[in-house]
Amino acid sequence: MKLTTKAMFTAVLAVAASSAFAAGGEIAVIVKSADSNYWQNVNKGATAALADVKGYTMTFQGPAAESDIAAEVNMVENAVNRKVAGIVLAASDPDALVPAVKKAWEAHIPVVIIDSALSDSGKQYYQAFLSTDNEKAGEMCAQALISRVGQTGKIALMSYVAGAGSEVGRVGGFRKYLAAHSKLQVVGPFYSQSQMANALNQTTDVLAANPDLKGIFGANEPTAVGMGRALAQSGKAGKVIAIGFDGNQDLQNFVKDGTIQAIAVQGSYQMGYKGIQTVVGVIEKKPPPKFVDTGVVMVDKGNIDQPVAKNVLY
């Protein structure tokens, strides 16, 4: 008698849960880049969650750059080879990480995806997805921009890694909302590869080439920081309306001094914290939620010192 796909998947999960639960062991948290404050905030959340469970250790790693997809694939494969108890993964590419996640599934190692979705071909190989609703967050950024620049004129779009799951949803939501609710002309997108220096140079060039620019959007942390520095260095701070994404200290300072008018801040700490909770739950035979929205808060000068902002800023 042939097992249905669902029955086979349940059987695999049961084997993974029973064996890993008996042994405890290592949970590998693998992110897009180990260096940025955003991913370090994920690390803080994961570390805090680990303190609440017994019998597990945690490793945290990521490539030096978000564009180094091959390095992240190797990290997942190495985690599978050393037979970790579970993996929490922020995938830098929706397609390239699928084979590595499939290897984890075949090895009976549960995987929880955070931040950026895998493509549809990978959905069967992981147990839960925790993320910002990036399309909704992109819409919020477009709304914040339109409310400040109006419905006509020219704005620039500074993005990060083309095709990354979070980028597709976030920038897609931003552009869709702009098209539906304004006649704003979009310059770009420009891709920084999540490198602050690239974003600074690209923004400097865009500002010089478009003296009539009314607004600009920086779609992730290093991109928004580079954007803010370019605005300050070019004397355009406060003259070109800027909306950023994520909430490190640099971006908070830009909001306070008026260089950037608002930042959309994700629950990165929650991704780490709930990521560990969720993967431990799978190991210990608790049915996981398929999707957890970890939220986003629009932070500006008016609320940056209030609890709603302080709870997500880092």
TrEMBL record:
Signal peptide start-end: 1-22
Subcellular location: Cell envelope
Cellular component terms (Gene Ontology): cell envelope
Keywords assigned: Signal
GO molecular function ontology, one term from the record: carbohydrate binding
CDD domains in the cross-refs: PBP1_ABC_sugar_binding-like (cd20008)
One of the Pfam families matching this protein, by short name: Peripla_BP_4
Periplasmic binding protein domain segment(s): 27-286
Family: Belongs to the bacterial solute-binding protein 2 family.
Protein name: LacI family transcriptional regulator
Organism: Caballeronia mineralivorans PML1(12)
Taxonomic path: Bacteria, Pseudomonadati, Pseudomonadota, Betaproteobacteria, Burkholderiales
